[in-house]
Amino acid sequence: MLKVSHLSKSYGDLKAVDDLSFEVQDGEIYGLLGVNGAGKTTTFRMIVGLLQPDCGEVLLNDKKIDYSMASQIGFLTEERSLFTKMTVEEQVYYFARLKGMKKKEISIELDQWLTRLEIQEYKNKRIKELSKGNQQKIQFICALIHHPKLLLLDEPFTGLDPFNVTVLMSILKELAREGTMIIFSSHRMEHVEVFCDRLLILVEGKNILSGTLKSIKEDFQKKKIYLSGKVSFKQLKSIEGVESIEKKGNEYVLEVASSKVVKEVFHIVKQSEVLDKFMVEDASLNDIFVSKVGELKHE
Fold first, then answer.
1. Is the pTM of this model over 0.90?
2. Nearest to residue 149, comparing CAs of 70, 42, 40?
3. Per-residue pLDDT for 248 more than 70?
4. Which of 20, 185, 232, 278 has an alpha carbon 20 to 30 Å from 89's alpha carbon atom?
């Protein structure tokens, strides 16, 4: 288990991370979300020991993380951290040796990963000759070739097409089933929504929302209603709690404040001459994220 307790970090007058605490269990994929500058990268760097917190601590299986635990941790940074003049083989060997792997072991693992990611023909190519997407695959291999217990991924799908995103997601789910703890950061809410067991939203270094995706959606009262048919929208607009009505093609989309408002809307539309569609949908993670961040910025 990873335990982050009361972490804080400032750069001069800027409080990058403010009293942050969370836990990640073995085999869990944990989402760390936030806008640019929210403190995600600073948090990652404190977890792996690249930055020292002003206060607080990070424990991996009840031990403070230091250099002796490097072989247990993998870190894929948001920035490209590859040596572009090295070949793929040289690059992976370099990072794997830093993690304590033996040459023979590296060779076997490297060939397996290159084959799985369908880039075996690039083994002797220089990094600078690869596309951005294939460079990202090499960073991915470097981060996990040593089978870390804890894997941190800062925007891991940058530069990848949807097919390769799906491939990497499948691999990460497989690692989680084997017991790897994964902390995952992304701006793409749809990735987080299908991928993470639990998540935390950071704003200005503070935890403003955390929990399972299911519990977060249940606690967030707003809903969307999709309607089509002969409906009195004048009546619907008059209902307190109907926040917006938008026409999309042949249907209307209503944003409402709560489940109670959904019932009031249904009470009206069921009396319509024709009702072709009435569908209720929970707010998406993207809707929740935008709403929560917006609320704080306007306080």
1. no
2. 70
3. yes
4. 185
